[in-house]
Protein: ATP-binding cassette domain-containing protein
Amino acid sequence: MISIQGLSKVFTSNKSNTAAVDNLTLSIDQGDIFGVIGYSGAGKSTFVRLLNRLEEPTSGRITMNDKEITTLNKRELRLVRQDIGMVFQHFNLLWSRTVADNIAFPLEIAGIPKAERDNRVKTLIELVGLTGKETSYPAQLSGGQKQRVGIARALANKPKVLLCDEATSALDPETTNAILDLLVNINKNLGLTIILITHEMQVIRKICNQVAVMENGKIVEQGNVLDVFLHPKQTVTKKFVKQIMGSDEEDSDISHVMNRYQNGKLIRLHFVGETTNDALISQIIKKYGVDISILQGKITQTQAGAYGTLFIQMDGNEKDMNKAISFVREETSVELEVIHDAN
Ligand SMILES: Nc1ncnc2c1ncn2[C@@H]1O[C@H](COP(=O)(O)OP(=O)(O)OP(=O)(O)O)[C@@H](O)[C@H]1O
Structure:
């Protein structure tokens, strides 16, 4: 749906040049929730602002639904911008307008007649969960409610793409989760493609299906979220994954566990993707009559399913334990490794 080729933005100030976005090539599919993650200064904001030409590129091409954004004149750009909604970190609301009038603002600019505008605003207020707040002013709202207004306003002209620039960074964790849930609903129910930039891996984990990691204006790693979580290649990506899962060292630091549980087999289970195997543990206990103690682990959920590691101790009859191990290895998608065997 969106194709970006050789996109660059160079800022010149005090005779020094900064390549905020550096020769970036990327494609984004219809219906994706595409996350761009990077540390401060990586070029994320510049990148997202280039997409709707709030920032003019120095070079490169952006096409959206076969329309070349980068060559549009002002009038054409105004029309295309109706297809691209944008949500900002600090909401950018009009403080002298009520919630309803903030949401109606882009519709007024687009010349939508009053009756249609009112209808649309009513629907949007319901969609973002602000019923009852129509006549409140932004100053009377919480951060989460302000962002709901920002989202409703971004959706007013029925865009095809929603750009979110650190949309949850000013919010507390609980409010962040509620806003992320709202974005997923919008993506599912309206079929909207969402591009969001963030410095928080939790945001990527929770709602994105694709992720690109930015550093120094470049995309250094990209792929579906589970793959990137499982096999981070670049140091910067590994750091982001560590934000959520802790380090590999923590995972493998099970010597204390090995000392305490000396019977049976110490096993590491690695869960990946769509088969969460929720009932795996109880299934093997029932089926093979073995005892299982859960010792340590961390499993997390992404849009593509669960992944993570669990350390267990399995005890019982040797034959039964071996059958249970074969079952996991052969009939489930869970990877199993016996890391210590007392027998
Ligand atoms: N208008 C500008 N003039 C000059 N330099 C700029 C301008 N905007 C951004 N930059 C520079 O471009 C680089 C990328 O900035 P950008 O804001 O895109 O990064 P970011 O990843 O969004 O960071 P943050 O999360 O802190 O906003 C930085 O080095 C920044 O100083």
Q: What stands out?
A: The longest strand covers residues 16-28. Residues 11, 13, 18, 20, 38, 40-46, 199 surround adenosine-5'-triphosphate (CB under 6 Å). The chain has a mean pLDDT of 89.
